[in-house]
Q: What sequence folds into this?
C-alpha cells in the first residue's frame, strides 16, 4: 500500500513537471485544433508542425487533439471538451457533418470562433456558423484529378482506400471515377492501415485485374506500400500512378517517374492559416472575406526540390 | 455397528461402463445402508472415479441397474441424483475459493425471497444457517462471508459435508476427502464422517489409504481393474489383506518383501 | 463479497486460533477498493492541476460524465461476463454493427425508428446468444470465439453500407427519429428544468449567440448517463443480492464445481453474453440517436477499454470475482483521466502512458487484496 501511494506521488510530480511546460503562455490567445485522424496517420505530422510554427510566430497557445482510433464519435467528445475548456478559437475538420455539426454548433453558440479545415465543404462550414473553410474540397479535387488522368488516356483504375470509414476518402475515389467518366464499382478497395496488408492487397488486385490502367492512392499511408507493391511486380513507372497528398517516399517516387503526380492540398496552410486568421481577427478584428482553398495543386517531377527538402515536415 | 438390519439405500447391481473401446467398469456391485460407512478402496485407475460418477448421475451405466430405496432409478444428471438424496463431495471440486462460505454452502440451492420477478437471496437466513451448520460440525467460522479460500483443506471438506447433510442427503459420497490433507486435518475429517454416520446417513468413502478406511469403515469393498474383488466386514480383514487386494495380489507381496513390509 | 455478517458471527464462541481482523482491514478487503482509491486519487489530481480549466464547470463535468457513462455501459456487461468466467472481444464491433443496423433499417428501408431499434436489439442479443452458445458448446476459449466475431461484425458493418449506400457513414437518422416514441429513451435528455433554473440563478453559463442564445449551455442530462446508472444499479443488485448473481459467481469461479451442485452454468454464461451484447446495443443506440448517423468506425477498440475499466474495478481476469460498482468506478477513472488530461494541458499522446500506469497499479493492488481475501500466500 505504501508503495502504491509513493508511486502515485512520483507520477503526480512527473505530471506536474509536464504541465509546467505547456502552461507557460497562459496569457496569450489559445486555439485548439481537432482532427479526425487516428494516431497512426503520419500525414498529420505536417499539420502538427505547421500548427506549432503558427503558434510560435503569432505568440499564441496552440493544442492538437485527435481521436486515437479515428472514431468520429470520440472526436465529437473532443470538440465538446475543447469547447468546455473555453479557448478563443477551435480549428476542426468536418469529417462527418452528422456527428460533428452538433458539437461544433454548440461551440459556436457558446461564443467560440470556429474555422473548418481539411474535410468538409465551404457550404457546410457556413451552415454550422464557422468563420470560414480552409482546405481542398475532396470531391472536386478527385474530379480534377480524374479529368487530368482521362486526358492522359486512363480508362480504368484502382483506388487504394486506407481510411474507408471516412466519407471524404470515398468522395475522392468517387470524384476521380466521375472525372474519368467511369463507374466506381469495385475499383475501390478497403486496404486497411497496415503497410504489409496494403502492399499485398494492391498486388492481389493488380494480379487479378491485369488490365488496370491506373492506381490512385489517398495519402502516404496507402501510397508508400503501393510503391513497394509496384516495384515488386515490375510495374513501377509502367502503370499510371497518381496520389493524394505528399510524403517523403511519394516525393522520391515522383522524381523517379513512378508517380505521375501528387495532389498537394498543402496541409501546412490548413493548420497555419486558421491560426493566423483567428489571431488577427481576435487582435485587430480583421477577417478575410472568403474561404481559402489550400489545394488542389498538382506536384509533378518539375520543381520538386523545395518540396522534397521539406516533405513530411512542412509539405 | 448399526445398519445391517436395514435395507440398502442405494444398491448398484453388476454395473458396467464403457467409454468407446475402453471398459472402465466391468460388473461392479455395491450397496450402502443407512448409518454405515462403506469404504470403496482401489488403486489409481481402478475405476473408483467412474463408479462414483455413475452413482451420482454424471455417467449413465452401459449395463446394470441402480436401485434407490428399492426402486429402480435412472439418473439423467447430477441434479437428479441430488434431488433423490445422493450427495457427492468431490476431492478437488468441492468449493469455489473466491466465494464466501455462505455463497458456497447455498450454491445451486439458494434460499430466495421473491420480489416481483426477482429472486433475491435471503442472506440473513443463509448466513445464520451456515454458521449453525458449521458449528454442528465443530468449526467456528470467523464470519459467513469469509472466502472459502481462507479455510484449510479439512475445513473445506467439512463445509462440503455440512452442506450435503443440511440439504437432506441420504447417501454421502466422499471422493478421496483425506488424500491431500495433513494428519491433524485428516483426523478432523474422519471425526466428521463419524458424526454424520451417526445421524443415519449412509456414507460411501472412497480412498486408497487403508489406514484411513479402517479408522471409520464398517464395510470395505475393493475395486481392481474395473471389477469388485469382494466386500469385507469390519474386523474380518487385516490392513495387509486389504492392501494386497487393492494392488491385485501377487506383485504387492513381492514388492512388500523387498521394501521390508513398510508399504 | 458484499453481504455483511448479519450479526451471526458475534453470537459464536471465539476460537482462539481465529485471529481477529480489524474493522478497517475488513472494510478494505473488497474488490472495488482499488477503484475507490484510484477514483479519489484521480479527482484530487485533477482538482489540483486542472481545477480552473473548465473541467469542473457544468459543460466540463457533463463532458467527462458522458465519456465515463459510455465506458460504464459496456463495462457493466464486460464485468458481469468476466465474473461469469468469459470475455467478449466483439463488443466494439457490436457497437458499430448495432448502429449500422439501426441506420440501414430506419434510413435505407424507411421503417419507423422504433422498429429499427427493436429489431436491432433482437439481432444483437441473438448474436450475443450465438457467441455464448458456441463458447459453451465447443468449450473453446471465449477469447477466440469472440475475436472471430470482432472481425465478422466489423466486416459486415463496413460491407453493408458500402453495398447499399456506397458509403460507410449513413446519416439522417435524426430526421427519421423525429416524433418517434422510442428514440428519446436513448437519445433524449431529462431534467432540463434544473439547468434552466441553474442558468437563471447564473450558476451555469448560457449560449451567447445563435439560435439558442440565452439557453443554458448544458440543457439536460443525456439518457446515456441515465442508462449507465440504471444498468450499474440493476447489475449490482442482481450480482450481489440474487440467486442468479450467486450462479454468476459460481459459473466463473469453477464451472465444474458449480455444475455438480446443479447450477445451470451454460445458461448463465449464454445469458451473460446476451447481456454484454445488450450493453453494446444500448451504447450504440444512444450514440446513433445523439449524433443522427452511424459509421463503420464506431466502437473501435471499445472492447479493450471495457475490459480495462473492469480490471481497474477489481475483477479477476480468470473469473469468479469482481464488482459492478468497481467496474463503474473503473469506467469513471478511465473517462476522467482521458478527458482530464486535456484540461490539465498534458500532451494527448501521454494519455496512453497514464492509462498503462493506472492499469498496472490497479492490477497490482487488486492482486494484493485478493491474496488477503483468499488467504493465498
A:
Amino acid at each position: 500500500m505504501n508503495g502504491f501511494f509513493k508511486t502515485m506521488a512520483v507520477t503526480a510530480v512527473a505530471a506536474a513537471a509536464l504541465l509546467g511546460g505547456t502552461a507557460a503562455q497562459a496569457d496569450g490567445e489559445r486555439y485548439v485544433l481537432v482532427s479526425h485522424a487516428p494516431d497512426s496517420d503520419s500525414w498529420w505530422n505536417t499539420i502538427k508542425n505547421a500548427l506549432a510554427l503558427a503558434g510560435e510566430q503569432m505568440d499564441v497557445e496552440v493544442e492538437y487533439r485527435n481521436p486515437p482510433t479515428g472514431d468520429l464519435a470520440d472526436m465529437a467528445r473532443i470538440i465538446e471538451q475543447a469547447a468546455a475548456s473555453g479557448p478563443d478559437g477551435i480549428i476542426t475538420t468536418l469529417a462527418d457533418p452528422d456527428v460533428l455539426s452538433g458539437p461544433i454548433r454548440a461551440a459556436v453558440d457558446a461564443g467560440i470562433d470556429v474555422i473548418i479545415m481539411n474535410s468538409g465543404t465551404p457550404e457546410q462550414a457556413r451552415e454550422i456558423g464557422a468563420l470560414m473553410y480552409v482546405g481542398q474540397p475532396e470531391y472536386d479535387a478527385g474530379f480534377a484529378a480524374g479529368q487530368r488522368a482521362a486526358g492522359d488516356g486512363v480508362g480504368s483504375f484502382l483506388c487504394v482506400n486506407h481510411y474507408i470509414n471516412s466519407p471524404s476518402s470515398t468522395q475522392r475515389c468517387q470524384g476521380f471515377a466521375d472525372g474519368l467518366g467511369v463507374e466506381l464499382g469495385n475499383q475501390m478497395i478497403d486496404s486497411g492501415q497496415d503497410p504489409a496488408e496494403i502492399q499485398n492487397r494492391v498486388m492481389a488486385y493488380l494480379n487479378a485485374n491485369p488490365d488496370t490502367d491506373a492506381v490512385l492512392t489517398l495519402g502516404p499511408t496507402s501510397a508508400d506500400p503501393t510503391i513497394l507493391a509496384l516495384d515488386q511486380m515490375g510495374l513501377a513507372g509502367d502503370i499510371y500512378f497518381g496520389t493524394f497528398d505528399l510524403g517523403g517516399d511519394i516525393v522520391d517516387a515522383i522524381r523517379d517517374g513512378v508517380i505521375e503526380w501528387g495532389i498537394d492540398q498543402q496541409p501546412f496552410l490548413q493548420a497555419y492559416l486558421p491560426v493566423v486568421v483567428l489571431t488577427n481577427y481576435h487582435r485587430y478584428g480583421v477577417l478575410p472575406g472568403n474561404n481559402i482553398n489550400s489545394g488542389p495543386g498538382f506536384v509533378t517531377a518539375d520543381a520538386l526540390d523545395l518540396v522534397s527538402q521539406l516533405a513530411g515536415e512542412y509539405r | 455397528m448399526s445398519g445391517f438390519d436395514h435395507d440398502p439405500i442405494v444398491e448398484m447391481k453388476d454395473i458396467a461402463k464403457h467409454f468407446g473401446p475402453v471398459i472402465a467398469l466391468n460388473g461392479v456391485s455395491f450397496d450402502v445402508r443407512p448409518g454405515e460407512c462403506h469404504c470403496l478402496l482401489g488403486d489409481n485407475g481402478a475405476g473408483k472415479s467412474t463408479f462414483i460418477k455413475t452413482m451420482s448421475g454424471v455417467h449413465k451405466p452401459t449395463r446394470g441397474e441402480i436401485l434407490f430405496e428399492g426402486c429402480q432409478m435412472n439418473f439423467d444428471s447430477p441434479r437428479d441424483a441430488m434431488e433423490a438424496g445422493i450427495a457427492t463431495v468431490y476431492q478437488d471440486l468441492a468449493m469455489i475459493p473466491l466465494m464466501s462460505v455462505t455463497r458456497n454452502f447455498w450454491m445451486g440451492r439458494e434460499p430466495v425471497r421473491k420480489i416481483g420477478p426477482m429472486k433475491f437471496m435471503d442472506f440473513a437466513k443463509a448466513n445464520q444457517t451456515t454458521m449453525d451448520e458449521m458449528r454442528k460440525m465443530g468449526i467456528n467460522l470467523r464470519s459467513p462471508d469469509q472466502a472459502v479460500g481462507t479455510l484449510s483443506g479439512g475445513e473445506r471438506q467439512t463445509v462440503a459435508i455440512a452442506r450435503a447433510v443440511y440439504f437432506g442427503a441420504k447417501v454421502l459420497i466422499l471422493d478421496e476427502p483425506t488424500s491431500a490433507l495433513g494428519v491433524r486435518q485428516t483426523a478432523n475429517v474422519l471425526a466428521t464422517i463419524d458424526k454424520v454416520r451417526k445421524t443415519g446417513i449412509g456414507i460411501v468413502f472412497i480412498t486408497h489409504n487403508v489406514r484411513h478406511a479402517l479408522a471409520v469403515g464398517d464395510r470395505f469393498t475393493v475395486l481392481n481393474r474395473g471389477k469388485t474383488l469382494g466386500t469385507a466386514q469390519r474386523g474380518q480383514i487385516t490392513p495387509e489383506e486389504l492392501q494386497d487386494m487393492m494392488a491385485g495380489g501377487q506383485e504387492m507381496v513381492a514388492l512388500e518383501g523387498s521394501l521390508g513390509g513398510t508399504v | 463479497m458484499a453481504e455483511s455478517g448479519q450479526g451471526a458471527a458475534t453470537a459464536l464462541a471465539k476460537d482462539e486460533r481465529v485471529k481477529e481482523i480489524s474493522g478497517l482491514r475488513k472494510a478494505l478487503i473488497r474488490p472495488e477498493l482499488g477503484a475507490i482509491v484510484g477514483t479519489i486519487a484521480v479527482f484530487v489530481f485533477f482538482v489540483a492541476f486542472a481545477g480552473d480549466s473548465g473541467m469542473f464547470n457544468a459543460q466540463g463535468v457533463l463532458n467527462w460524465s458522458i465519456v465515463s457513462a459510455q465506458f460504464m455501459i459496456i463495462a457493466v456487461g464486460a464485468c458481469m461476463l468476466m465474473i461469469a468466467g468469459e470475455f467478449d472481444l466483439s463488443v466494439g464491433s457490436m457497437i458499430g454493427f448495432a448502429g449500422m443496423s439501426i441506420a440501414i433499417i430506419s434510413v435505407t428501408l424507411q421503417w419507423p425508428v422504433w422498429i429499427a431499434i427493436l429489431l436491432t436489439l433482437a439481432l444483437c442479443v441473438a448474436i450475443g446468444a450465438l457467441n455464448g452458445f458456441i463458447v459453451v458448446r465447443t468449450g473453446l476459449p471465449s477469447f477466440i470465439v469472440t475475436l472471430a466475431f470482432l472481425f465478422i461484425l466489423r466486416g459486415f458493418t463496413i460491407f453493408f453500407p458500402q453495398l447499399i449506400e456506397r458509403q460507410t457513414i449513413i446519416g439522417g437518422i435524426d430526421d427519421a427519429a423525429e416524433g418517434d416514441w422510442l428514440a428519446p429513451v436513448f437519445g433524449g435528455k431529462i431534467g432540463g428544468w434544473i439547468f434552466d433554473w441553474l442558468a437563471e440563478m447564473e450558476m451555469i453559463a448560457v449560449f451567447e449567440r445563435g439560435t439558442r442564445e440565452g439557453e443554458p449551455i448544458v440543457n439536460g442530462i443525456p439518457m446515456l448517463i441515465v442508462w449507465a446508472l440504471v444498468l450499474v444499479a440493476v447489475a449490482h443488485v442482481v450480482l450481489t443480492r440474487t440467486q442468479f448473481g450467486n450462479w454468476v459467481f459460481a459459473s466463473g469461479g469453477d464451472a465444474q464445481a458449480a455444475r455438480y451442485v446443479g447450477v445451470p452454468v451454460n445458461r448463465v454464461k449464454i445469458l451473460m453474453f446476451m447481456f454484454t451484447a445488450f450493453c453494446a446495443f444500448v451504447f450504440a443506440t444512444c450514440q446513433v440517436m445523439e449524433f443522427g448517423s452511424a459509421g463503420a468506425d464506431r466502437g473501435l477498440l471499445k472492447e479493450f477499454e471495457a475490459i480495462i475499466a473492469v480490471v481497474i474495478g477489481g475483477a479477476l481476469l480468470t473469473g469468479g470475482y469482481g464488482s459492478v460498482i468497481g467496474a463503474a468506478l473503473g469506467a469513471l477513472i478511465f473517462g476522467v483521466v482521458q478527458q482530464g488530461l486535456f484540461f490539465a494541458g498534458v500532451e494527448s499522446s501521454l494519455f496512453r502512458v497514464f492509462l498503462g500506469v493506472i492499469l498496472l497499479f490497479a492490477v497490482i493492488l487488486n492482486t494484493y487484496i485478493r491474496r488477503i481475501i483468499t488467504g493465498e500466500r
User: Anything to note?
Assistant: Chain A touches chain C through 53 residues (CB under 8 Å). Residues 1-10, 12-26 of chain A have pLDDT under 50 and may be disordered. The domain at 26-136+266-295 of chain A is CATH 3.40.50.2300 (Rossmann fold). Residues 70 and 231 of chain A are 30 Å apart (CA to CA).
